[in-house]
Amino acid sequence: MSEEIPDPQALALELQERLDRTNEARERALPAARRSIRASANAIRAIHRGELEAAEELIATSRAALAEATGALEAHPGLRFAGPVLDAEKEHAEACIVLALVRGAELPRPGALGVGDAPYLNGLAEAIGEGRRHVLDLLRAGRVDPAERVLARLEELFGVLVTMDYPDAITMNLRRATDVARSLIEKTRGELSIAVVQRDLRDALDRHARALRGE
Questions:
Q1: Would residue 3 be called left, alpha or beta, if left means φ above 0 and alpha means ψ between -120 and 50 degrees?
Q2: Contact of 117 with 84, CB cutoff 8 Å
Q3: Is-contact 40 89, C-beta < 8 A?
């Protein structure tokens, strides 16, 4: 029994039509993913400047662009779950987590952000680095107590990361990001400890000076 051999030209046209649709979806998604990444990065910069309302607006811009990118690739999972779109999800998650850290608010969950678990976890890991920067800003301003609270939250985030014992293919190489986060937390803890000792010494000297003056 002979099998029917498809017409080469018809086969080529069929494949070209499908690939054309895939390429068109990719061409729509990539600029949107880049806009999302750019807005997320600008949001983090605004957060460190204390411009939280501006950061919220930029995060909303990032979310809209991310939705546009994922929507364009809805029928193309091979592109949807790879490359720039995952990077956009990670950056968006990072910006949202950093804003929550600075505000002392509850952390948003992946579903609420419209991102996957692996991009969310990587965004969380990178948010620890931004959280360290915030701690250092607080210490430079002499605000030791708030810095201690932020560090405590960073350690909680790290506690989440170390429980994710899964292959890198599933977690987008989360192990490396977790190792970096561990190093940053250790450095921050050391710097905060020095700041606490300096504060306590300064307070003790102030009390001694007041006692000498009979105050």
A1: beta
A2: no
A3: no
